[in-house]
Amino acid sequence: MAITKKEQKSQTRRQLLLAGLRLSSEKGFSSLSIREVTTSAGITPAAFYKHFHDMEELGLAMLDEVGLSLRQMLRDARRRVDTDLDPIRASVETFLSFVHDNKNLFRLLLGERQGATSAFRMAIHTEMDRFVAELAIDLERLQSAINRPLNNPVLAAESIVAVSFTLGAEALDLPKHKQSGLTERIAYHIKTILRGSLKANNTKTSTAKAAKTPSSSRKKRKAN
């Protein structure tokens, strides 16, 4: 059965996206040319402009692909947390599995944060902010479940994302069966961040209670 023009256009656009991801993992997106991408995709340079205005527009479309994959990863992690005894380890394993299975997507985020145009960099930061926002929502649910409020869920989420992406980069060169040690390291850092956030909130609460205690009561306790 012959495919329609709409289906053909969608397939060609997809070929360009995949070619861009493959090449960006090898040499970085900012150094790519339209000719390189179209050659890799098996289409003519002229056909490129039927789908994208320029390389920047292709890059932004690639980042949309990254964002969708990351958000799907988060949803998968949340489903695992429901049945896993160690939700942090389950989330880290899911994250590293994503990195291993989608190296091109992860390299795009890691390698282009400081390169390319301002619009491209802004799109990367926007995707990262979405990642942080979804994690912050998870942390807010966690503090409700354990009835122990965190000092600042958003700040904790930002720290966890920074640690996960920095250490997660090591997974790019590791065989999947050797990721156990890396999983433990990332999980350890995440738990340290969460413990610090819980401790900071407990300290703040204790200080607030002390400030509300009448001076006569404090003097009486001191005398005793």
CATH superfamily of the largest domain: Tetracycline Repressor, domain 2
Helix content: over 70%
CATH architecture heading of the largest domain: Orthogonal Bundle
The CATH topology of the largest domain turns out to be Tetracycline Repressor, domain 2
Question: Structural class given helices, strands, pairing?
Answer: mainly alpha
Q: Quickly count the helices.
A: 10
Strand count:
0
Overall geometry comes to elongated
Q: Please, how many domains?
A: 2
CATH uppermost class of the largest domain: Mainly Alpha
Average pLDDT, all residues:
80
| Percentage of residues in DSSP E strands | under 5%
Alpha carbon gyration radius: 23 Å
GO molecular function: DNA binding
Pfam family, one: TetR_C_46
Region (Disordered): 201-224
Protein name: HTH tetR-type domain-containing protein
Describe the structure concisely for a colleague.
This protein has helices at 5-27, 34-41, 45-48, 55-81, 87-101, 103-111, 118-146, 153-168, 180-212, 215-223. It has 224 residues and is mostly helical.
Outline the fold blueprint:
Layout: H1 5-27, H2 34-41, H3 45-48, H4 55-81, H5 87-101, H6 103-111, H7 118-146, H8 153-168, H9 180-212, H10 215-223
Helix pairs in contact: 1-2, 1-4, 1-6, 4-5, 4-6, 4-7, 5-9, 7-8, 8-9
GO molecular function, one term: DNA binding
Protein name: HTH tetR-type domain-containing protein
Region (Disordered): 201-224
